[in-house]
Amino acid sequence: MCPLCSCSDVSLMHQSSKDSGPEYREFFHCGICDLVFVPSRFLISYTAEKKRYTEHNNDLYDEKYRNFLRKLYTPLRPYLKPGSKGLDYGSGPGPALATMMKEDGFNINLYDPFFHPIEINLQTKYDFITCSETAEHFRAPKVEFDKLQGMLKPNGWLGIMTGMLEEWSQFPAWYYNRDPTHIRFYSRKTMTWISKLYSWDLIFPGPNVTLFYKLSATSDYHS
To answer: What one-character DSSP code corresponds to residue 72?
Structure first.
């Protein structure tokens, strides 16, 4: 069953090499929302997952890392009002994106289940939410998107950056599926399905980036 849309219209799309040993995984494709996912039997432990994240380079002031994060932040920033309140959801051990936004005068809260498990920050409404290189780790993506929907104010923005392919035929050779913590893979079709589920508008400003806009009854925004 698809972990995003709960549909049973799923089929095996790819298997990693049988010689991969403990790294062997199967990847299924949903015929409804277009999500590609790893079944729960192949998910690694939370301890192993956290260890993997600590191996990433998350230096707050590393310019190469900041340039990577700008792929999300640069297209999102023009839509944000000065001083507005945001949440960096899945901020990781080194919240560089939050630091960049604070430097620009935004009021930013952090949440990360491993490194910043500040539950009270999930009880607040936000003008915008960023989710950079996080959605591919969602064990229960529908639960997570429901949570994001609930925290986002009307006329608010949700910016997501996650690896996406133009064609699933490229999946077997894609480096992105080789990370054992990457368990959910989205396409533009998947993001469009999500936008319709929550009545969000959406923009694809560049590769791997989706901006969702939470409409309100009085909104005059048009994409």
So the answer is: H
Domains parsed from the chain with CATH numbers: 46-214 (3.40.50.150)
User: What is the rounded distance in angstroms from the CA atom of residue 197 to the CA atom of residue 60?
Assistant: 35
Residues pairing with 36 in the sheet: 29, 185
Tell the residue number behind the tokens 């539950």, with chain if given. 119
How much is the pTM? Answer: 0.93
Question: Within a 10 A sphere around the Cβ of 14, how many other Cβ atoms?
Answer: 15
Segments of 100-187 assigned E as strands: 107-111, 126-132, 152-161, 184-185
Which are the contacts of 67, defined by CB distance < 8 A and separation ≥ 6?
A: none
Q: What is the mean pLDDT of each successive set of 10 residues along the chain, which is 223 residues long? A: 97 82 86 97 93 79 91 98 97 92 97 96 98 97 98 98 96 94 97 97 97 74 38
